[in-house]
Amino acid sequence: MDNKEILNLEKAGKIASQTVKYARNFIKRDMFLLNIAEEIEDKIIQLGGSPAFPINLSINEVAAHSTPAYNDSAKAHGLLKIDIGVHINGYIADTAFSLDLDNLEENKKLINAAEAALLSAVELVKEKKIVKVREIGAVISKTIEKYGLQAVRNLSGHSIEKNEIHAGITIPNYDNAQEKILEKGIYAIEPFVTNGVGTVRDGKPSGIYALTKEGNVRDQFAREVLTYIKENYLTRPFCSRWLYKKFGSRALIALKRIEESGLLHNYPQLIESSGKPVAQAEHTIAITSKDVIILTDIIDSLNIYK
Ligand code: MN
Ligand code: MN
To answer: How much distance in Å is there from the Cα of 230 to the middle of ligand 1?
Structure first.
């Protein structure tokens, strides 16, 4: 990583940290999810960043990949996961936390287990010079099991590269027997915890999309929307809500045309297989030649790489 990359990542991380701090304070039960999403995304922009993907607001058994539609009327409740991505010039910080909006002991336990598992994983990486991905998975699941709960085994952390949120290396939430050693780079660690069976299945389409293929569409307006997507999101995830805001209701038809052309992936919601609640905690870390830094836990200090 050169100095420019590091500065961009550091800035993205700091904005993500500040946004989390802000969101933790303002989110309350019964607020419209749509208002929460827009307020968080506006905050990121106000702080000088851009959303790296649509804010994920996933409730109870929905583990991930849920963002409000442009006309969404759902309200915040239950065990709410807030997953936030910030990018600066394509350099991405990815972070998440969970809130118990129903004041339930069980929700609090799930959240505590997710936070503790994340902390144990980060500490292991900091402590060891050479760490295998299976060892991170092992410490995560061991920590979660101390709470009498399960790690969600088919959700995992990931390496991050420029404009690529999921860049190929998997950081498991259990010992998956992979001997792969984490090299220098950027990684998201994200334990998901449940009191259910500990897997997720695909649910309905989320309205969160990403461009997956080169190509074009015949319809002229759809082509205009596609150009906008290519220029503004590249291969980063986006949502129909964002396009609705830019182009109005015509965007939804255009999006359908683009989807029919096979150029887009529409991410399915991820639902806990036994319908039980899921908590999540996530940080993005940088492993450099000198240090391990939690990029999404920077509130005040800048230039930490000096
Ligand atoms: Mn995330
Ligand atoms: Mn992630």
So the answer is: 22
Alpha-carbon span 152 to 193, nearest angstrom: 6
As a residue count, the chain comes to 306
What string of DSSP letters covers 106-170? HHHHHHHHHHHHHHHHHHHHHH-SS-BHHHHHHHHHHHHHHTT-EE-TT--EEEEBTTBSS-S-E
pLDDT tens per residue, range 30-70:
999 999 999 999 999 999 999 999 999 999 999 999 999 99
Q: Hey, which residues does 161 pair with through a beta bridge?
A: 164
User: Scanning the structure block, which residue is given the tokens 């129909």?
Assistant: 240
Active site residues: 83, 94, 158, 166, 190, 282
133 and 180 in contact (C-beta within 8 Å)? yes
Domains of the chain: 3-202+271-302 (3.90.230.10), 205-268 (1.10.10.10)
**Minimum-distance ligand to the CA of 285?**
2
